[in-house]
Amino acid sequence: MPILSNAEDDAVSAELVAAEGLPWPPSVDDFFLPPVAGPFVTKFSIMIWIAVALLLIFFLTTYRNPKIVPGKGQWMAETLYGFVRDNIAKEQMGTAGIKFAPYLTVLLSFIALTNLFGIVPFLQISPNSHIAFPLVLALISYVLYLGIGMRKHGALGYIKKSLILPGIPWPMHFLLVPIEFLQVFIIRPATLAIRLFANMFAGHLILLVFTVGGFVMLNSESLFIQVASVGAFAMSVLMTFFEALVAVLQAYVFVVLTANYMGDSLATEH
Amino acid sequence: MNVLAAIEGSVNTIGYGLAAIGPAIGVALIFVAYINSSARQPESAGYNRTWLVLGFALVEALALFGLVLAFAVGG
Questions:
Q1: Is the minimum CB–CB distance between A187 and chain B shorter than 8 Å?
Q2: Which residues of B touch A11 (CB under 8 A)?
């Protein structure tokens, strides 16, 4: 026997019934869009292709004829590369890091660009709000820092170096070795992926709440709520600016942490 | 039995709210440290900004794990 009859249920939740056709409240289903062509060509794959094409075009055309006194495009590309090489690669990895600066530059610009797609009109969702894309990027970083470490120290030497801290009494190792193993081999790539994914997921969800919520408020019967919907739209403008900040910040953090892990692998002691 | 009041929704939001207390305090501590150190020694502000951003993102990630799990687990 149901606790509430259907009539009572509708009476209780009558105020919660939003306007027809609006996806309210926003949920995980709003992140799964209908495919564009076939099962694998979705809006997300098209966005990834657009991002790759934009980056290729940008870096190729700005460096087509490099001059001693750079023009605007060349200056922008050089500023970006210089920033990554000096402030990220050299600081985290030392001079051995300059080899990896090109990869880190592309990683930074790719993640920043795909994150910014979350606020670009008509796109308005970041591919990184699906766990697949950050997961692949994090796995590439994972393979990279493991490979660098194992190439420098040998496989067993690398595992020994990362699990065993020097200068502590030996019974502590029973506690520390599992923790270090979890940290280096499991938690680092997982948190890299989940941090990027969760930031983009949460950002999109917040924007959905304020924009769709503003429309829900506009469709209500009370004039006060309709006027108050201006607040919802104003908040969505503010959150768009915040989302732009978060997009670039998360790209920077991803790259800095990747460089840090690689520098950790290259270090001679723990 | 008469139902006098009913709550809709899932416990996940309560769990996320509780889980966000720790990272909120953590982020505040990071910014406190940055503000204090920049006030004592303004020349270090530029150097410390790297660690500010890094620390903030690392701690914020924990709050966001909670948000993701609130949706992913039986939401």
A1: no
A2: none
Which chain A residues are closer than 8 Å to B64 by Cβ?
Answer: 194-195, 198-199, 202
Is residue A235 a contact partner of residue A210, using CB atoms and an 8 Å limit?
yes
Place of tokens 């564009």: A36
Q: Which CATH number fits domain B12-72: 1.10.340.30, 1.20.20.10, 1.10.3720.10, 1.10.760.10?
A: 1.20.20.10
Quote the ipTM score: 0.83
Give pTM, 2 decimals.
Answer: 0.88
**pLDDT digit string (tens) for chain A, length 270 residues:** 555 455 544 444 444 455 567 888 888 888 888 888 888 899 999 999 999 999 999 999 998 888 888 888 999 999 999 999 999 999 999 998 999 999 999 999 999 999 999 999 988 999 999 999 999 999 999 999 999 999 999 999 999 999 988 888 989 999 999 999 999 999 999 999 999 999 999 999 999 999 999 999 998 888 999 999 999 999 999 999 999 999 999 999 999 999 999 999 998 877
Q: State whether B61 and A194 contact (CB < 8 Å).
A: yes
Contact state of A4 with B75 under an 8 Å Cβ cutoff: no
Give the integer Cα–Cα distance in Å for A22 and A122. 18
Give DSSP secondary structure letters for B23-44: HHHHHHHHHHHHHHHHHH-GGG
Window A:247-266, CB contacts with B under 8 Å? 249-250, 252-253, 256-257
CB atoms within 10 A of CB A32: 10
DSSP three-state, residue A41: strand
Domain ranges of chain B: 12-72
